[in-house]
Amino acid sequence: MESIRELLDAKPRRGLVATAPDATVREATILMNDHGIGSLLVIVNRRLVGIFTERDVLRRIVADGRSPDATCVGEVMTTDVVCCCPDTDVEEVADLMRRRRVRHVPVVDADDEVRGLVSIGDINARRFASCETVLHQMEEYLYRRA
Questions:
Q1: Which residues contact 57 (CB under 8 A, 6 or more apart)?
Q2: 53 close to 103: Cβ distance less than 8 angstroms
Q3: Domains in the chain, ordered, with CATH?
């Protein structure tokens, strides 16, 4: 079984993108757009206090008719953040995402410091690569090219 640590190690290093709770929603969404991402970690004193996602924008800003310039991230972020540790199995995190209906899971170590972020896209890409490998091995076996 593959761990989240292994998945993170295989990902290209981009660095975590975060914001503060007092940033405006407009500032946060510009940051998300600039980085081509769907969520921001909300961090205070190196500790995760929430996550701000595209879903938060739709449900708590657009649907409620709130101003993105007059609303702070801390007012509308998700505070019940689903997290995992680096040693968690990838399939366990995939199941957690499915059950909790989330697309981003911060990876937090024993000291409560954020070590990475796993998206459903990361997990799907890993699953696809694994299937490709197995398929290639089966083709090699069947056609005796190995």
A1: 25, 29, 68, 76
A2: yes
A3: 4-142 (3.10.580.10)
The span from the CA of 86 to the CA of 8, in Å, is 8
DSSP string, 46-94: TEEEEEEEHHHHIIIIITTT--TTT-BHHHHSB-S---B-TTSBHHHHH
CA distance 119 to 96: 12
Give dist(CA 83, CA 117) in Å, integer. 9
- Which residue, chain included where needed, has tokens 């899971």? 105
Could you tell me the strand order of the sheet in which 18-19 lies? Answer: 18-19, 39-44, 47-53
Burial of 40 per CB tally in 10 Å (0-12, 13-18, 19+): buried
pLDDT above 90 (res 94):
yes
Q: Tell the burial category of 4 from Cβ atoms under 10 Å away from its Cβ (0-12, 13-18, 19+).
A: buried
pLDDT digits (tens, 9 = 90+) for 44-54: 988 999 999 99
Residue 146 above 60 pLDDT?
A: no
